[in-house]
Amino acid sequence: MKRYMSTALVAATLSACGPSGPTSSSFFTEAGSEIDQGDFGNATMNNALVQTRQQDYTINLARRFNTEVDAMVNFEFDSAILDSLAQATLRQQADWIRQFPEVRFKVFGHTDLVGSAEYNRNLGLRRAQAVVGYLSTQGISRDRLEAVVSFGATQPLIPTPEPERRNRRTVTEVSGFVETSPLLLNGKYADVIFREYVSSAEPNTTVQDTTITTGSGG
């Protein structure tokens, strides 16, 4: 009887201290598991996926750009002038872009739904050109700004026929790599990341706003 009770007591103790027990389940897990939020080892995993072509590094950088930088700037009605807020956003974009000299970008221009389709296509193009021009003053080569595209009023964020500032915008996106080094990140992602920490941004320069003639678009 005593032997049976001792065995039962040991079993109960082990059960309480086991992986499913409420008192010391962390004893059976890896060191640091309580503070690991799932990001540990991602750098090694990303390198492995890139080298085996299981991950599109262009898409990966595009997601990172959209996460770390505001990719959109807005405009006043019927204008392609970059106000102070837009310029501040573009300086942040330029700081990020300078860290990756191998990456190319597209700038997409948009308008609201006010005005004719043809006028808005031209207005959206002027807005995109204003952004490209400003980025080039921040040390970004025009060769890396792959294209200037205008969607005009065809892709509104807010579907309204009224003037809407949120629709009057440009969007900067990662589009690919320059032809001289299209596979730089294939196995060399760590080199690019390291460069972010050791390279300093070039001093910003002051530029004049780009003005356009007024018309009847948004």
TrEMBL record:
Domain OmpA-like stretches: 66-178
Keywords, alphabetical: Cell outer membrane, Membrane
Cited CDD domains: OmpA_C-like (cd07185)
This protein's GO CC annotations: cell outer membrane
Major place of residence: membrane
Pfam families in UniProt: OmpA (PF00691)
Keyword Isomerase set for record: no
Subcellular location: Cell outer membrane
UniProt name for this protein: OmpA family protein
Lineage: Bacteria, Pseudomonadati, Pseudomonadota, Alphaproteobacteria, Rhodobacterales
